[in-house]
Amino acid sequence: MNVSDAISRRASVRAFLPEPVSITAMQKMLALAARAPSGGNLQPWHVHAVAGEPLRELLALVKARGPDLAAGYEIYPRDLWEPYRSRRFQNGEQLYASIGIGRENKADRLSQLAKNAELFGAPAGIFVFIDRGMGPPQWADLGMYLQNVMLLAVEQDLSTCPQEYWALYSNTVSEFLGVPPERMLFCGIAVGYADHSHPITRFRTDRAPLEEWMSLRGFQ
Question: I need a surface site. Which of 51, 114, 155, 201 has the fewest CB within 10 A?
């Protein structure tokens, strides 16, 4: 598999089979992903992979406690502007439409949203932390690490779903994993084998046309 194929195949999957992820597969992709670049080679990522009984205990605790009083960080800017506002709205509409949930069906929309806190049934989860003192450059470095993880998962026929949603449960996850307070949870990643029989697995997001965001100059 080449890089282009892995990028094309990667998608945020929201339905998984119960088949477990091997420790060999998990360790391989987390370790190789650390070849991601980072300014000054700081390598600002702190990664916790959880599966089996520990994962069941964590998800049960999350369900019992509910979300934190405040998210660990502001996931989206307030008063999101165009074209980002429309892109986010369209993404939500298309996602729910893929499983037959209309805009007026708030109960089923909330039920689907709550599946984030179950890792969408994935048999493994990755929780990624960064030191609170780090700035935007290190957050960008962390993003490059995460992309590596997801592309390496594709190489192993695994699927993933990166979830900033876990910022709503930062305190519970940090406490369960014994993470020191100077580190903050950025995201969780659901990891497993996709359930291709579920209609939501066929959902794919659109991408903006190139002329909206790309400028090329001086090329022959």
Answer: 114
Helix (H) or strand (E) holding 190: strand 183-192
Distance CA(98)–CA(114), nearest Å, equals 17
Rounded to whole angstroms, the maximal C-alpha distance in the chain is 60
Mind listing the pLDDT tens digit of every residue in the chain (220 residues)?
Answer: 899 999 999 999 999 999 999 999 999 999 999 999 999 999 999 999 999 999 999 999 999 999 999 899 999 999 999 999 999 999 999 999 898 998 889 999 999 999 999 999 999 999 999 999 999 999 999 999 999 999 999 999 999 999 999 999 999 999 999 999 999 999 999 999 999 999 999 999 999 999 999 999 999 9
Residue 65: its H or E element:
helix 52-65
Q: pTM to 2 decimals?
A: 0.94
Contacts of 122 (CB under 8 A, 6+ apart): 16, 161, 190, 191, 192
Q: Under a CB-based contact definition with an 8 Å cutoff, are residues 14 and 120 in contact?
A: yes
Question: What are 132's two structure tokens?
Answer: 């609170």
Please state which of the four CATH numbers 3.40.309.10, 2.70.98.10, 3.40.109.10, 3.30.360.10 is assigned to the domain occupying 3-72+117-203. Answer: 3.40.109.10
Residues in the chain: 220
Q: How far apart are CA 98 and CA 159, in angstroms?
A: 18
